[in-house]
Amino acid sequence: MAPSPAPARRPVRPDHEVLIVGAGFSGLCAGIMLRRAGARGGPRDFVIVDAAPSVGGVWRHNTYPGVAVDVPSATYSYSFEPNPGWTRTFAPGAEVRAYAEHCADEYGLRPHLRLNTRVERAVFDEDADVWRVTTDRGELTARFVIGAVGPLDQPKNPDIPGLEDFAGTVLHTARWDHAHDLTGRRVAVIGTGASGLQVVPELAGRAAQLDVYQRTPIWVFPKVDVPIARPVRALFRTFPPAQRLVRLVTAAASEAIMVLGIVHYSKAPFLVRAVEGICRAHLRRQVPDRALRRRLTPRYGFGCKRPSFSNRYFPAFNRPDVELVTDPIERITEHGIVTRDGTERPVDTLVLATGFKVLEIGAMPAFPVVGLGGVELGAWWDEHRYQNYEGLSVPIAPNFWLMNGPYTVTGASWFSIIEAGATHAVRCILEARRRRARRMTVKQGPHDAFTAEMRRRMKGTILAQPSCARSNSYYFDRHGDSPYVRPQSGLHVWRRARTFDLDDYAYRL
Ligand SMILES: Cc1cc2nc3c(=O)[nH]c(=O)nc-3n(C[C@H](O)[C@H](O)[C@H](O)COP(=O)(O)OP(=O)(O)OC[C@H]3O[C@@H](n4cnc5c(N)ncnc54)[C@H](O)[C@@H]3O)c2cc1C
Fold first, then answer.
1. Residue 7: its pLDDT value, please?
2. Distance between CA atoms of 339 and 333, rounded to whole angstroms?
3. How many A from CA of 58 to the centre of ligand 1?
4. Where are the beta strands (DSSP E) in 148-224?
5. What is the Å distance from ligand 1's center to 154 Cα?
6. Based on the domain organization, do 254 and 304 belong to the same domain?
7. Is the CB–ligand 1 distance for residue 409 below 6 Å?
8. Engineering a disulfide at 471: which of 59, 78, 127, 304 sits with its beta carbon 3.0 to 4.6 angstroms away?
9. Is 121 touching ligand 1 by the criterion CB < 6 Å?
10. How many other C-beta atoms lie within 10 A of the C-beta of residue 434?
11. For residue 375, what pLDDT is reported?
12. Domain match, 102 and 122 both
């Protein structure tokens, strides 16, 4: 399609052609793909800014005891950069963080990094077709912006009266203070999601008393978490196809559970029932007390909320010094927690395993993004419901892609989503350069068609089941929509990233 003629506009030479916000695995991937494109005549001038002092994103921020991947390690890496060094089938967080550092070095990203730089606001200058990005270190301008701030970045505190009056120590799992010794203390953990499940077994036995406050139980799958023997690691290093095969098998299994169980739930609900059966049998094997088991059993379908793997979580509740508290919390006092039945349990250290702000203004996107007509993206989504062409772009924000925004999560691991998102954004930037366009904007038609398809498909997923209403899941927003998940297979998303029609965007010189 021929670019439409542009009115006379002020030419501005931006500081950078591309600005990537976030140096987690998404931002690093976008950087790697830009570097590769740069070697073939694409843009070389890009920066990756991150508020943190080092790369790694969630793996830099989440260092609580027990933090580890909850998908098989073999699938948790870039497809083009396998890590033969994982020491366990489910790698600990420190290894994932080291892998991020390795990728930054290996792919020559260090000169592009601007760390300790927080983006506060991005405004599209419609006269100049550049983004004016305000950071806590001054303003930067860029032709294109890739938002790579993951959705699990901003820790969320529970909305419980009295939290601010608590006189002991408060730790959020996403901002752990390793100088604080929990040994011999009375510890309360609030939250039993994916992080709570990992931290509880680590604290049990170390704390004098551990009270675990559960609002919603989690589905827990048995975990085949074993060390990867040195000879196997050596084999992966010297004969990479062996590791690729393991990745293929584990990815196919994870993708099958995600796609058949969640995305195509209505076609084969028995599969989800079978997975729930495995989880129930796991709980039965690990917890002899029937009443306790009942309280640990979810009353919503598997997949309404992030499930996890563990062999150590349930047994923690068999200990005499660990109590599962399911009576709702009424308030927090200076020295403890009061539940609705009037009981006050004393607490020295309060651990908030309460997750992240996800589908809400201020978190999605993580900073104000002001697009065409001065419209702010977060407010626009809040009013008009989340919508996002191919999970990446919207008609009100030209030259902007938000990786891991609404309608993205699917497939075997985040790396498949991340690589698809970066592929899409970099293809767009290369096309804009090829057409010598200064502005590209997704057209309303393809955007609306994608949104309609997502909403239609969502009706067949597990997330449309009534039982999800009991799950307190961050997959849902205030409208009751579940735009966290993209109801398509990871394979489909991979293919779309490479084949979507570049004419779905409008270009302006
Ligand atoms: C504890 C935990 C365990 C997980 N385990 C798994 C797993 O096992 N498998 C799986 O597939 N996924 C897992 N995830 C999901 C995980 O979020 C993704 O796998 C992936 O790491 C996301 O990478 P990202 O780069 O998109 O986002 P992030 O890792 O969140 O990186 C975003 C970066 O943006 C920076 N940033 C934020 N705001 C600003 C700003 N305003 N200005 C500048 N910089 C900013 C942050 O400092 C951060 O470095 C887990 C998440 C958590 C929290």
1. 53
2. 11
3. 4
4. 169-172, 186-190, 209-213, 220-221
5. 10
6. yes
7. no
8. 304
9. no
10. 12
11. 97
12. yes
- CATH number of the structural domain spanning residue 171: 3.50.50.60
- Angstrom distance (rounded) from CA 477 to CA 54: 31
Q: Is 474 in the pocket of ligand 1 (CB under 6 A)?
A: no
Residues 132 and 168 in one domain: no
Domain presence at residue 5: no
In a domain, 10, yes or no: no
Atom of ligand 1 nearest to the CA of 50: 44
Pick the range with the lowest mean pLDDT from 16-20, 414-418, 421-425, 473-477: 473-477
Q: Does some domain include residue 406?
A: yes
Are 252 and 413 within 8 A, CB to CB? no
Does one domain contain both 39 and 118?
yes
> Total domain count for the chain?
2
Ligand 1, residue 27: give the atom nearest the CA.
25
The Cα–Cα gap between 400 and 171 comes to 35
Average pLDDT score over residue span 13-31:
97
Tokens of 273: 């029932």
**Confidence at residue 1, expressed as pLDDT on a 0 to 100 scale:** 47
DSSP classification of residue 171: E
Is 199 in the same domain as 285? yes
Give the whole-angstrom CA distance, residue 361 versus residue 89: 37
Q: Are residues 328 and 364 in the same domain?
A: no
- Do both 498 and 403 map to the same domain? yes
Helix, strand, coil distribution of the chain in percent, nearest 5? 35, 20, 45
Residue 44 scores a pLDDT above 80:
yes
Can you tell me the distance from the alpha carbon of 318 to that of 26, in angstroms, rounded to the nearest whole number?
40
Q: Provide the mean pLDDT of the chain.
A: 93
Question: Which stretch of 85-89, 191-195, 249-253, 387-391 has the lowest confidence by average pLDDT?
Answer: 249-253
pLDDT digits (tens, 9 = 90+) for 202-224: 999 999 999 999 999 999 999 99
Cα 225 to Cα 88: distance, rounded to the nearest angstrom? 7
H, E, C per residue of 37-67: HHHCCCCCCEEEECCCCCCCCHHHHCCCCCC
Alpha-carbon separation of residue 501 from 126, 232, 279, 295, 436 (angstroms):
25, 43, 42, 50, 18
Residue 240: inside a domain: no
Task: Specify whether the CB–CB gap between 386 and 477 falls below 8 A.
Answer: yes
Place of tokens 């989340």: 386
The full length of the chain comes to 509
Give, for ligand 1, the residue of 26, 58, 354, 485 to mutate: max count of ligand atoms closer than 8 Å to Cβ.
58
Q: How far apart are CA 197 and CA 67, in angstroms?
A: 10
List the domain range (segments joined by +) for residue 64.
Answer: 16-154+358-508
Which pLDDT score is estimated for 462?
Answer: 84
Residue 317 and residue 349 share a domain: yes
